[in-house]
């Protein structure tokens, strides 16, 4: 008989919804647990099988946590600003909010079909004005604290489409839509000074429980380097371009000890002193070089496998430690945005410099090293710390984002912020206006820039003429604080109630993709820290524990992609196999943190397993009925015989396998080892099939253990064995200790490091137990007589070392 997944899953999903089983209360005496998954971008193609990998796993954790007596917050929402909806609007004219709504409806239906225990009453949608009102409010907090500022920076520019491109729209240096090589162009952007928090973002990693590889990714992204700034002077008379004489170039080095081996100095092409240093003889060449390198991406420039190029400026500078006169070059392997944008080159010690020196025939000299502090002092340098982390580019010239709530006063208000004035809180949100065209304007400004009624407004300070900022916020804005809004999603007076935040924060467990452990994780940690500093949130760190799932690859091990046509549609899987098979298969397919290939065979295997569980429980039920029938027929005879019902008697072997599995599955779910939890369940059902049947209470323990993993199946079987109510309202089973230890193990016993005997003890025996047994062993006790035991060391199940005096 095939398991009726469609009927059973629908039935239980409806029952859960009706009973509001997963609605979370803010006032509960139970301990709180906040379990969070990264919310999806509701794309037009619907849920990808990669999304459920995260949700299924954390759903199992959330369900178990509820059964353990916790008040669990397990919310979901939609991170819905972004390019696909906007590009679709450019193509079709359909407003992004319409496609977004449709996509959200699809996502919600898909999520519900999988039976997730999300509290849907707390859904958030970052594009809802009631939500982004608070994103804008928080931006203004940053602005008022001086952490938002405008600066000219390079953006990716498509000269044909005449628009600024997001990094993800640049593919191999070309515009994703038209294939034209992308150029760099200077544009004024709003920036957020996240670098002010670099040290704390690094330091506080010590206080949180993140997977080691996640911590490492954060540390590398922040990229702290201890080094020194050293000045190389362009002294008169050494051959400098006259305009540069008297100035000096400041380099950043992590190796001042190598100063004596410097043979040239290199500036990044965008260094402000390049033009001033370039002699007329070299000007044409240098200018061409600067223009060409502006077209290259920073990743290409920093790529150590690429051949390095550069040009001589015609000027020289003096090495402060030994007076050597060294030539000044321009090369794009030096990045403008890091350190001081200038380096001292030491070909003898640095591989890049060595390669460059060989290519351009620059000297390579071997000089002894001088220790760090002494070298810095000799060079009259300054010790300093630099970070790779850059300030956050916080504006885009695009439509589908949160409008930046600032007004430029045309009559001179607020000169200290360049004339920018905050929109008063009572006027928030600044709602996105309707537009006719969604593409940026010809000069790269946002499409909002041509809507006069939006742009022209009054200065909130003086009431004079004002013009609105027409840039919108980047995709990362709304996701920087969504975990706070789930706590109080309908609050109109604040982004969330303080008492409620005190109750729920920090998030206890957060899961998401490895691709988000730098930007999103860092941005949201920063955002939360900033709100904490302003007294708006109760904790400095938002997430206590952070884990990550591996990707689901296609069956041939490659990345699933629409163009290759190897994308697995979760709808089809749920329809054919049911949510529980999908859930268990996803948990079973491999270690949670690792990438794993999708396998249809694997699904079929899990489908059989579900059928097997159903059959086992049904047979168990029939046996009970049989014994009851027998009892009835017996009572018709003269002397009634009582036949023991299978559910009355515990069988030791049966109990053992059940209790051991309960222990293992519990530990595995806590350790996020879902695949081994499923295999333990499979082993258990195989064993049970060969053993006397469990009692009713034991079978109930089995179903309670199954509930977080296959909730529909467990609920159905719970009912079939004669229970009412929800299996999940029961407690998570705790393994009975007496059934956990069985085998004996051989333990070697040493006295003062010398082997004095071996003994059989029960597996898992404690130090005291083993010591008592050892004392009773003649061969060992002989070595203890008359001596004082000063120390006992047990390597469980292997070795006991007794130290005596
Ligand atoms: C001389 C030297 C000798 C260096 C040596 C290294 C090794 P991290 O650790 O990443 O901070 N550097 C400085 N600013 C740079 C920039 N804007 N673009 C490219 N390279 C830059 O690296 C710091 C080192 O990278 C600095 O120390 C500098 O080269 C280079 F044997 O100075 B070093
Ligand atoms: Zn004004």
Produce a short descriptive summary.
This protein has 805 residues and is of the alpha/beta class. Residues 225, 252-255, 258, 268, 334-335, 338-339, 341, 343-344, 346, 349-350 line the site of ligand ANZ.
Describe the structure.
- The protein has 805 residues and is an alpha/beta fold.
- The chain has 25 helices and 30 strands.
- The strands form nine sheets. The protein has a five-stranded parallel beta sheet. The chain has a four-stranded antiparallel beta sheet with strand order 6-5-9-18.
- α3 crosses α4 (96-113), α17 packs across α18 and α20 runs antiparallel to α21 (674-688).
- It is globular and about 110 Å long.
- The N and C termini lie far apart (71 Å).
- The structure holds ligand ANZ and zinc ion (ZN).
- Residues 225, 252-255, 258, 268, 334-335, 338-339, 341, 343-344, 346, 349-350 line the site of ligand ANZ.
- Residues 409, 411, 413, 459, 461-462, 464 line the site of zinc ion (ZN).
How far is it from the N-terminal to the C-terminal residue, by CA?
A: 71 Å
Q: What CATH architecture of the largest domain would you give?
A: 3-Layer(aba) Sandwich
What proportion of the residues form beta strands (DSSP E)?
15-25%
CATH fold-level label of the largest domain:
Rossmann fold
Class by SSE composition = alpha/beta
- Give the mean pLDDT: 92
Number of strands: 30
Strand order of the largest sheet: 2-1-23-24-10
Largest sheet: 5 strands, parallel
CATH superfamily of the largest domain: HUPs
Indicate how many domains the architecture comprises. Answer: 4
Bound molecules: ligand ANZ, zinc ion
Compute the number of helices: 25
In terms of per-residue confidence, which ranges show pLDDT below 50 for 5 or more consecutive residues? Answer: 640-644
Radius of gyration: 34 Å
Assign a percent range to the helix content.
Answer: 25-40%
Shape descriptor reads globular
